[in-house]
């Protein structure tokens, strides 16, 4: 984590699309009068989704306006949660887990790939396709190392399959989410190492 | 009531008390940073940790745990709080060590030094050295307005300022962005705070992170002489402490008075300090050939005396301004009686208030503390936020508690609370009066915006009718409340400083050709037309002095002892902090000298003798800090008058909050605040 500030270059204005506006109004109506501020995280999330995956100052102010909150209250939320991007990100926004299990399983190699292909953290590639950020544990330690690209996890990465993944994304080819080595969810790699027999089998 | 043992001492406290309050009840002081009695509980500084028996077996934040959260012992023994145990000592040392990890060691250059909670508590509860060897955190300073300077390295994230602006001030200016170690206190993108109470955040700050900007690097708290007195910037009469060094007023701080200002003061009250030093009239002046020239007291008094003797009584008038104490108003009244003139007035703005309907007709009868008991409010022609920001905070406090409907007639302004807007003028009020249903304990606030106009008396009557018919008058409740804007007004009305039989009022006196001689005791809000000879007793080179033919320099409110009556009728005593500058004298003494020059000295030679006279004539002025309550019968009598009001919308009583009196207009800090408020000054980061 580091100090999170709004981006230097801002977009002029922000308006919710009619569909999102309708969605927002519908959601706001669910909250009791005077408690609309509780809606702030979903509202910001929707704004971020609509706005190329990042929140501009205009978007923050728009949400504050819609929920009748002081602007600083919304800014507090937007700067608190790392899920809100305060600066533009690539079309594919890669969040790389660098916490202990992933580090032990070789996330350094993945970082090297990203440094080489995408550049330093937080910088969007010239074609606007990629940007990346090292984040804290994303909770898929069994399948380390892993990254999150936009809404999906990509696990069991190696330098080779990760590069292939990036190639496929860049070319717009379909990619497989989850484990990249073909295992189902977080079952053991190779053969079972525990619970190898049913209860009672061993007693016979 | 619940019994609880604090360090072995049994106290009986309400169950909803926090442990911290219970400890205070037992006479044990608990260190704290984030906890503040008048703000919500945050529980984030952890300084108030105590050990409890009957609760979780770990140090507990005593500010955030209530007495009823603790269980009694197996045999019904009361729960116990330990504040001096080894666990508590260790916990406090640990918390203090963490707080100091990122706190810079700049006490020698920090303005908070000497009155810093962190400094004091580190001395008492901390350890003598630090084990921390790494780099300290560095935080950029923020621009948050012209009144509060920031030094954000020193911030310990107690969030008192955030809670104050969100809860008391109601503007939600400040917040904490980021998280964890990167948390920073700031306003939205470093914009200036918009509250009229923003100066209070510097008082609330337990460390030197938020400091009063105009007082930067001027002095140390132990150098100051501290004088407890009363503020005159508005009619609230807030309790203040004026700190002075030598002959100079250095700063003004609030004092706690739960009945009036709790512990807040407005920015105008706090920061007009520089206005007390600039534009001062420090010697008499006489106008010759259209220009004012310095003169001696003898010359000036002789000039006024000569003019007085040459003028028939009916052509003489006397005006009292907004900042005059009761003593000098009384002295001027005695002088006017001696001269035999009926032309007296204290209502420069032309407010249609007077003693003729009884004292209750011009008091804030509900009292300021009484606002919290009100069941609903009707605000007529007032903008409490500008006319008395601290009183407005009280209304907001009541509103926040819920079940408090506020209706407003007049200027549609952001008052920091929600209200039903009825309309702009008396017709909307009349409609409301006809259609609304009575409620319990209605608070009717009528402001000078509704009173200072031709049909002010009708507005006053309509307000009385609202109070009578809609639940404003009941046993033990008188909700009819006049919100004054001038500190001198209620006292002067108590003295009957209004036109006598056949006398002219302020507006008529100011007209060209109405009078030949006007004694002007600091009335600067009124333009006196050319013609009359004006003898001005005042403090600043403001409108009154520009119009004067003779200037007799007087004392500002920090330079004289005197009584003031606030809007609720509370008599309060102000004390002299420093002496008036140069040859200026206290106003009562100027009037006494003037009467001597006229050959008919007023019957007192000292302020004490004057006060004795005053109390003889008006016994209620002897009851300092008390209110002589107004009678509800007077409101009912007032309500029975016919009221024919015009349709014009009520105009705001105060155009510019920062420029309401000569002292404020002389203050550069107020000018800056005003410019900012007008949106003229670009929001430049420091």
What separation lies between the terminal Cα atoms of chain A?
A: 56 Å
Q: What is the helix tally of chain B?
A: 21
Strand order of the largest sheet of chain A: 2-1-3-4-5
- SSE ordering of chain A: HHHHEHHEEEHE
Strand content of chain A: 5-15%
The secondary structure category of chain B is alpha/beta
The largest sheet of chain A is: 5 strands, mixed
Helical proportion of chain A? 25-40%
Computed structural class of chain A: alpha/beta
What are the salient characteristics of this protein?
heterodimer, A: alpha/beta, globular, B: about 675 residues, seven-stranded mixed β-sheet, five-stranded mixed β-sheet, 28 strands
Question: How are the secondary structure elements laid out?
Answer:
The complex is a heterodimer of chains A (204) and B (686).
Chain A lengths: L17 H11 L11 H11 L6 H11 L3 H10 L11 E6 L2 H5 L2 H11 L12 E6 L11 E3 L2 E4 L3 H13 L6 E2 L25
Chain B lengths: L1 E5 L2 E5 L5 H7 L23 E5 L6 E2 L18 E3 L3 H16 L15 H9 L22 E3 L9 H10 L4 E4 L6 E4 L12 H5 L5 E3 L12 E6 L8 E7 L2 E7 L12 H5 L13 E4 L2 E4 L2 H13 L6 E5 L5 H14 L3 E3 L30 E5 L3 H4 L1 H12 L4 E5 L10 E4 L2 H10 L6 E6 H4 L4 H14 L3 E2 L2 E2 L1 E4 L5 H6 L11 H5 L6 E5 L11 E6 L4 H5 L2 E4 L8 E4 L5 E4 L12 H11 L9 H11 L14 H8 L22 H5 L1 H10 L9
Parallel strand pairs in B: 1-5, 15-16, 15-24, 17-18, 17-20, 18-19, 20-23, 24-25, 25-26
Antiparallel strand pairs in B: 1-2, 3-4, 3-5, 6-9, 7-8, 10-11, 11-12, 13-14, 13-26, 21-22, 27-28
Quick take:
The complex is a heterodimer of chains A (204) and B (686). Chain A is of the alpha/beta class and 204 residues long.
Structure, explained:
The complex is a heterodimer of chains A (204) and B (686). Chain A has helices at residues 18-28, 40-50, 57-67, 71-80, 100-104, 107-117, 159-171; strands at residues 92-97, 130-135, 147-149, 152-155, 178-179. With 204 residues, chain A is an alpha/beta fold. In chain A, α2 runs antiparallel to α3. Chain A is globular and about 65 Å long. With 686 residues, chain B is of the alpha/beta class. Helices cover 27% and strands 18% of the residues of chain B. In chain B, the strands form 8 sheets. A 7-stranded mixed sheet of chain B has the order 14-13-26-25-24-15-16. A 5-stranded mixed sheet of chain B has the order 2-1-5-3-4, with helices on both faces. Chain B is globular. Mean pLDDT of chain B is 94; it is low at 680-686. The A-B interface holds A 1-4, 6, 57, 69-73, 75-76, 79-80 and B 166, 171-182, 184, 186-189.
